[in-house]
Task: structure prediction
Amino acid sequence: MSRFLTKNGKRIQTVSSVMLFGSFLRYQEIELPDRHNQQKAGRIVASEGKHMKKWLGRWMALLLVGVILFAFPACGKQETETESGAVVGAPDPEKTYQSTDGRLYYLSRDLSRYITISAYTGLSVSVDESAVNESVEESLRELAKTYATLSSTKTVALNDVVFCSFTGYVDGKEFVKAANEQIEVVENGYEKIPGFAEGLVGAVPGNTKRVTVTLPKDYSDPDVAGKQATIDVVIGYVVTPTLTDDNVKAYTSGEYKSVSAYRKYLREETYRNMAVQALIDKIRESATFPDILTAASEQCYKDLVNMITANTGMTYENYLKANEMTDADIRDMAKESYEYNLVMYRLVQLTGMQVYEGDYYPRFEEFVNAYLYQQEAAGVTITREEAEKYVNENRELVISACLENKVFDYLIANNKVTKK
Result:
């Protein structure tokens, strides 16, 4: 599941909750038996991480490390055997452990001093089915783009992506000009000028198409804001997203054999995720956080700002402008992310959840497959052994994904969710 920030009606994906949840375990080492001696179990399904906007989620997870370790430095190890296999990691709210060789294993500090949760069962939330369907179709459109076809002759249709150049006029005077612009031909596909993207339907590459629009009243140039404009567009190439049953079969390694089957899976997962998101938000809103977290949240914000400037090569102000965000958005992200982590891990403690080998290795395979896919998409060739080594070095994310899934199942089973 991913965290979203809503700004002016636009949904901005900010942080993968798996990455956030995993940040609690960052820099901790989990002792596992040799995976090659373990029997693989469970289904391997297409990883949601394939659709993830990667960089911000990872950075946020990393930057939270220092703050989290500052707040909860004590970790521990538990060695028990059960029918499900050896314990991989289990928070213990009562004791503080540290291994004799100095390695850290998992969080065991009692979090009750950092967060008080008034209720986490018997809650009622509702899920908007139209939002579920919209999210599913958006995911399918994004997947279709990975199997797109490129044409310099095809007539533009809805859902195509075009590469074009254009010049706009108001009262015969030029007010905008762009070259090699990439525009998705969907409603408000070009947010600066509503109606422009939709007006490209029917355009033929190489020919000029004139689109007439009314500029928004808050358009960046006040001299033309609210006025009627004509925009002459020349399409260079048309990219048509394509998604077939064979594409889905290949993408999911045979797990789903048709678009309709994969759509059904996405709908079920999205409904579950939105329900859990609503429940966690309700728990977080009613929870109390002591003043001690104010400084931690502020440090989280500062670390995020520093990482943005260090890793994008942009000034913080230019980054905000390019992503249509404000400083308040970043502060809200930091605060919400920190609180989300606390809620999730406190729920793990309150419910006594643990991760066993039977939980771990199927998810390990998912992460390996997702990393292989990510590298392939980036044009990088690596072996499966290299991917396994990478995931093993970041095994805390796999463990946190297992714990998160257990929390999700618990919340769904112990609360009421209705459709609206």
